[in-house]
């Protein structure tokens, strides 16, 4: 898994590449939380465009970051999920908690 974190004003953009499974999710959680703990971030955008697989630990990281950013009064968005990843997110019910968009530009327009 490759992880790119970029802060733009009060938004943390996280671009993930590869598999989100139990081998990498702890590192992902730690790196995102380190940025969120600065308390300068009120929005979290999780770009899953290049994610090929998500297991239950990956879902747990997503839900945990949603709870954390919500607790800070912020919002979370998921963008770019492939059809197979989107299916996993929908079966888990994450799409009922977190708004999902096709690409990063769609969020800029809201």
What do you see in this structure?
The protein is α/β, with parallel strands linked by helices and 110 residues long. It is built from 5 helices and 5 strands. The protein has a single domain, classed as STAS domain (Transcription Regulator spoIIAA), CATH 3.30.750.24. The N and C termini lie far apart (29 Å).
What topology, given as strand order, has the largest sheet? 1-2-3-4-5
What's the end-to-end separation, in Å? 29 Å
Architecture, CATH level 2?
2-Layer Sandwich
Query: What structural category characterises the helix and strand content?
Result: alpha/beta
Element string (H = helix, E = strand): EEHEHEHHEH
Average pLDDT, all residues: 92
CATH-defined fold name:
Transcription Regulator spoIIAA
Architecture blueprint of SSEs:
Elements: E1 2-8, E2 11-20, H1 25-36, E3 43-54, H2 56-71, E4 75-79, H3 83-92, H4 94-97, E5 99-101, H5 104-108
Parallel strand pairs: 2-3, 3-4, 4-5
Antiparallel strand pairs: 1-2
Helix pairs in contact: 1-2
List keywords for this structure.
110 residues; alpha/beta; Transcription Regulator spoIIAA; 5-stranded mixed beta sheet; 5 helices; 5 strands
Give a short summary of the structure.
The chain has 110 residues and is an alpha/beta fold. The chain has helices at 25-36, 56-71, 83-92, 94-97, 104-108; strands spanning 2-8, 11-20, 43-54, 75-79, 99-101. The protein has a single domain (2-108), classed as STAS domain (Transcription Regulator spoIIAA, 2-Layer Sandwich).
